[in-house]
Amino acid sequence: MNTIDMVGFIGGACTTVSFIPQVVLVLKSKSTKDISLTMYSIFVFGISLWLMYGIMSNALPVIIPNFITFILAGSILVMKIRNDIVTGKKALNS
């Protein structure tokens, strides 16, 4: 593995691991009240674009972390949407 790929993997690992505490907190508390639906919607869309870019350019340091981050952030987004529907909150108001 070359140095450039190593830097990419380390950077990707750091940004990906940063979502684990949020996922754990949401799973434990079952609360997404203080999470912005707009921010997570835009973020998950952006991550999906990075994932597509990585796939199209065949760049594993981009594909692997963005796939994992997509799953983590996407799960928070799904829980946020589900909780907002249950509480009757209007979409994209937070």
TrEMBL record:
Membrane-spanning segments: 6-27, 39-56, 62-81
Location relative to the cell: Membrane
Gene3D superfamilies: 1.20.1280.290
Membrane topology, record value: Multi-pass membrane protein
Keyword terms of this UniProt record: Membrane, Transmembrane, Transmembrane helix
The keyword Transmembrane is annotated on this UniProt entry: yes
InterPro entries membership: PQ-loop_rpt (IPR006603), SemiSWEET (IPR047662)
Pfam families: PQ-loop (PF04193)
Protein name, as recorded: MtN3 and saliva related transmembrane protein
